[in-house]
Write a structure and sequence with these properties.
Serine Threonine Protein Phosphatase 5, Tetratricopeptide repeat; mainly alpha; globular; single chain; 70% helix
């Protein structure tokens, strides 16, 4: 419940201080609320929070861009709801727009999540390809990073 409380409190505070900020209202706040819902295991609430993100492919003038976080989090929510096809479409959206993702971690992680979505659908050929893309991107990473170890273990099960 702490994640939900923090997401609600943070969102309410930001809304109060910046009521006219379009990027905040239609991108960042839904992402914060969805992340809090996912933290609490509520994929339906996460998907509901992300239903109001009409500008997720829009670029802002900010140095760091968070425009595709709604798509990434929506993909995570679909994975949690065991809807592999819908999850794959969201993660593919992230992968298809590297210029919007820039150097955000979701760019690489979308490949891993895409592999998980295909595995959920039973498509091992596509799952292996997505896992390989992720592992190629992370080939020089510290081998003790938990997400990398987990990805390698999941990939090995697909062989």
């Amino acid at each position: 419940m702490a994640g939900d409380f923090l997401g609600t409190r943070l969102g309410d505070d930001l809304s109060k201080h910046f009521p006219e900020d379009t990027a905040l209202k239609y991108n960042l706040l839904p992402s914060v609320r969805a992340a809090a819902a996912l933290h609490n295991g509520d994929s339906a609430k996460a998907l509901a929070a992300l239903a109001t993100t009409p500008y997720e492919l829009g670029q802002t003038v900010q140095q760091v861009t968070f425009v595709l976080y709604p798509a990434y989090l929506r993909g995570e929510a679909y994975l949690a709801a065991r809807q592999g096809k819908a999850a794959a479409a969201e993660f593919q959206k992230v992968i298809d727009h590297p210029g919007l993702v820039q150097n955000e971690s979701i760019g690489a992680l979308a490949n891993l999540q895409l592999g998980r979505a295909y595995a959920l659908q039973g498509d091992t050929t596509m799952a292996r390809a997505a896992y390989q893309d992720f592992l190629t991107l992370w080939k020089d990473a510290d081998p003790d990073i938990p997400i990398l170890k987990q990805a390698k273990a999941e990939y090995a099960k697909l062989q």
